[in-house]
Amino acid sequence: MRIALVASPFISIPPARYGGTELFVGELALGLKARDIDVVVYTNGESTVDVERRWLYERAQWPIQGELYDNLKDLNHSSWAVADAAADSDILHLNNIPGLLASRATGRPAIYTVHHPHEAPLTELYRYLPDANFVTISDFQRRLEPMPKIRTIHHGVDMAKYRFQEKKQEYLSFIGRIAPMKGTHLAIEAARRCGIPLKIAGEVQPRYRDYFEAQIRPQLDGKFIEFIGEVNLEEKNELLGGSRAMLFPIEWDEPFGLVMVEAMACGTPVLAFGRGSVPEVVKDGVSGWICGSVDELADRARHLTIAPATVRGYVEREFALGTMVERYVELYTELLEDGGLGRRANVGSALQTKSSAIA
Fold first, then answer.
1. Strand partners, 284
2. Count of CB atoms situated within 10 Å of the CB of 356
3. What pLDDT sits at residue 341?
4. Contacts of 214 (CB under 8 A, 6+ apart)
5. Closest to 104 in 3D by CA, of 116, 92, 87, 96
6. For 16-25, 126-135, 226-235, 328-337, which range has the lowest pLDDT when averaged over its residues?
7. Structural domain boundaries in the chain
8. In the structure, what pLDDT confidence band is assigned to residue 348 with cuts at 50, 70 and 90?
9. Is the CATH number 3.40.50.2000 carried by domain 160-317?
10. Which of 143, 251, 279, 342 could form a disulfide bond with 133, CB atoms 3.0-4.6 angstroms apart?
């Protein structure tokens, strides 16, 4: 069995900092390799994931500006990647829209993991791809989509990469894009109401620069409300591991929210608003609390009684990498056994290879 994982060319795999989709692709690739499954990742030349890698573009590029050139770059990379993968791969596993569209001309079984929230124009687009097999990353997300061949596979994390920390420090954490729908301003408000310092980590993308300058920067003092910026895996471990709790006051329907699992893997409970996938990820009183207001976030933060070991144990049972990999392998196997058709029913819960150029 040979699996081609196709991602956009903009962020390296694994990501140095921001990149939830790229983190997923990297972890899945390594999980497949550990099962002796042949896997190739289509990415950019700066990627370091330890499997076969192929690319057109040498350098990562983030953030993108949304200009025509950037869209054409993704189209160029993805159409080439799909054509190349179709020549020697059994299954095409796509993780971007251009790759999905290019796959329909190959005759190869295609899987598309839906990493984005529900959007009506995309759902309409999917109707033109009846042979594709869709994977949503939460049941909430799946219930919004009408495609005939669709199932949910929750993300998982490699627990060995996240340090469990029993003893917590007296601060709260927030990790995510600094954007209104992520609720950074609400995390600050909750911290002030409960009197516990807050450390904020994340990327300020160009389109949310005005939000950061108007609503976040004026509240930063470097002590009670501290902005750390983007963090790598080691810095994320340190921030989350020491945190009393991670705040996740989203104001949108989050498709999954991988950072919640990362926090819990460090033994840190998550205090979140119950939108989107949150009720599937956070278990009340076990791995955190689902809250209905900023006041409730503040009250839960003041009176946390959940043991860090309980939080870590929950993630090990529910969101381990091995579970996610096993479910994808089951899907790959099913497609090959069915001749690439899959089950037509909803199912719930310059070319370079490796590091050498080909002239």
1. 288
2. 7
3. 54
4. none
5. 92
6. 16-25
7. 2-156+320-357, 160-317
8. very low
9. yes
10. 342
Pick the CATH number of 2-156+320-357 from 3.40.50.300, 3.40.5.50, 3.40.50.2000, 3.40.1160.10: 3.40.50.2000
Calpha distance 15→237 (Å, rounded): 15
Give me 164's structure tokens. Answer: 């469990």
User: Which helix (H) or strand (E) covers residue 200, if one does?
Assistant: strand 198-201
pLDDT at 20: 87
DSSP 8-state symbol, 39? E
Q: Do 2-156+320-357 and 160-317 have matching folds?
A: yes
Summary count for the chain: helices (H), strands (E) = 13, 16
How far is 193 from 187, CA to CA, in rounded Å?
10
Query: What number of residues does the chain have?
Result: 359
Give the model confidence (pLDDT) of 59-104 as tens digits: 998 877 765 557 889 999 999 999 999 999 999 999 999 999 999 9
Q: pLDDT (tens digit, 9 = 90+) per residue, 35-68?
A: 999 999 999 999 999 999 999 999 998 877 765 5
Place of tokens 């596979």: 153
Q: How many CB atoms lie within 10 A of CB 61?
A: 15
Distance separating the N- and C-terminal Cα atoms of the chain? 28
pLDDT for 357 equals 33
Q: Which residues sit opposite 288 in a β-bridge?
A: 270, 284
